[in-house]
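Re: weekly structure request thread

Next one in the queue (110 aa):
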Amino acid sequence: MTAAWLWARSRVRRRWRTLLVIAVVTGLGAGVALTAANGSRRAATGLGRFRAATLAPDLLFSPPDPDPALLQRVARMPGVAALGAFTYTPVAPKGTTPGGDAGAFVALDP
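Done, posted below.
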């Protein structure tokens, strides 16, 4: 064996506990970093997955007079995939003010 090998073995023999602690701390740090990276990658797609699951609209518009002819013109516009009508209903759980604290959007389509 060379002198360098003998020296390295004696250092490891004397300091194996310190090296073990360094290895465990390094492993834990790497695990946290990889978990954070995976979480951020999943979070980046969260809005798209939420919108697909809830069929969220891209646009809401509320004309002052819901003229059926206007709604038909909007439905024929390029880029419009679907059209639905809704209304706001001032309802609220007990203890809140209807229309002020809470309310609900209700679909008018069958």
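The chain has four helices and two strands. Helices lie at 3-14, 16-44, 46-54, 68-75.
Next request, please.
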